[in-house]
């Protein structure tokens, strides 16, 4: 192909197919760069997800420690107060109504611990643990609130005074039913896992 024009004379111009080949090579380079960028972004997202998974595991463990501190702490405070507080000449821990509350709380705490341990064993074994974990979250959050409520009840009016730890337990326990999914979210997860 020869181009002619005023003052140019006959000159050789790059062939169209050569120019097309160079453009295709540039397009391929651009596409490869885009693919590399996408791959890098996906790898970064995967690393971020691994970090988030580890963080969620740690937060889940922290949450389980939190409910245990709240529930067990509330029970311990209630028991200590019941042994110390006297009514009608004897400690209130000797009255059947208080004993029933303390016994129920102790039993519920132990059952919740076993549920948490079961979820942990399933996870460690690489088995599906979604249902058990959701059940544990639901049970432990509610239990921390219940233990705190009962501890406040055993303390009577003193349960609302800031200098008694049960007041703080009661206030802090409620967040366990909200954080990492509300009770309603946990119930939905459980229902789906059951096939409902």
**Quick one: how many beta strands?**
4
Which strand-content bin applies to the residues?
under 5%
Strand line-up across the major sheet: 1-2
Task: Please give the largest β-sheet.
Answer: 2 strands, antiparallel
Catalogue the unreliable spans.
none
Element pattern in H and E: EEHEEHHHH
Q: How many helical elements?
A: 5
Class based on secondary structure composition and strand pairing: mainly alpha
Q: How would you characterize the overall build of this protein?
A:
It is a single chain. The chain has 196 residues and is mainly α. Helix content is 73%, strand content 4%. The protein contains 5 helices and 4 strands; from the N terminus they run ββαββαααα. The protein has helices at 16-84, 96-124, 130-155, 165-173, 183-193, and strands at residues 2-3, 11-12, 86-87, 90-91. A two-stranded antiparallel ribbon has the order 1-2. Helix 2 (96-124) packs antiparallel against helix 3 (130-155). The model has no long low-confidence stretch (mean pLDDT 79).
Give me some keywords for this one:
196 residues; mainly alpha; two-stranded antiparallel sheet; 73% helix
Summarize the structure.
The chain has 196 residues and is mainly alpha-helical.
């Amino acid at each position: 192909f020869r181009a002619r024009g005023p003052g140019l004379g006959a000159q050789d111009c790059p062939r169209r197919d050569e120019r097309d080949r160079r453009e295709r090579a540039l397009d391929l380079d651009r596409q490869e760069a885009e693919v590399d960028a996408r791959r890098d972004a996906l790898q970064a997202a995967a690393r971020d997800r691994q970090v988030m998974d580890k963080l969620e595991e740690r937060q889940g463990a922290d949450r389980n420690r939190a409910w245990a501190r709240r529930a067990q702490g509330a029970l311990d405070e209630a028991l200590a107060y019941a042994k110390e507080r006297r009514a009608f000449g004897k400690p209130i821990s000797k009255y059947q109504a208080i004993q029933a509350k303390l016994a129920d709380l102790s039993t519920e705490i132990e059952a919740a611990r076993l549920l948490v341990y079961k979820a942990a064993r399933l996870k460690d074994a690489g088995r599906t643990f979604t249902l058990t974990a959701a059940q544990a979250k639901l049970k432990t959050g509610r239990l921390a609130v219940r233990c705190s409520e009962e501890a406040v009840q055993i303390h009577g009016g003193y349960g609302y005074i800031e200098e008694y730890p049960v007041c703080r337990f009661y206030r802090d326990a409620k967040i366990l039913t909200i954080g990492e999914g509300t009770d309603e979210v946990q119930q939905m997860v459980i229902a789906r896992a059951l096939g409902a």
